[in-house]
Prior knowledge:
Structural class: alpha+beta
Helix content: 10-25%
Radius of gyration: 22 Å
Amino acid sequence: MKHILKHLNSLSIVGAxxxxxxxxxxxxxxxxxxxxxxxxxTGTGGGPPANTVNMQNVSFVPNTLTITKGTTITWQxxxxxxxxxxxxxxxxxxxxxxxxxxxxxxxxNTAGTFHYHCTYHASMGMTGTIIVQ
Length: 133
């Protein structure tokens, strides 16, 4: 009986160590932001890295992003064809063409709510909003 209890006890220790290792590995997989300005994506996990807007499936993901003044947003094109990020207010910002698989950045130094679109796909609903606090 002592032998069985000793064996079960060692299995419990091994199981606890294995569980702790799995939790440690999972904890290291979460999203993080290295931006000195703070801000980040709204919504729950599973989206792009903080301060990144993905262009995919003729959509901006996330569709609405809240950031702080001075934050730089990366526009990452995940589609195989070009997109733009173009402010609805003429002259505010326009990334120009962002070919599939590439990215461009825009820094936001003014507080406000800014609506934008893809020049090529706005008629298909490819629009979004940046909120700068």
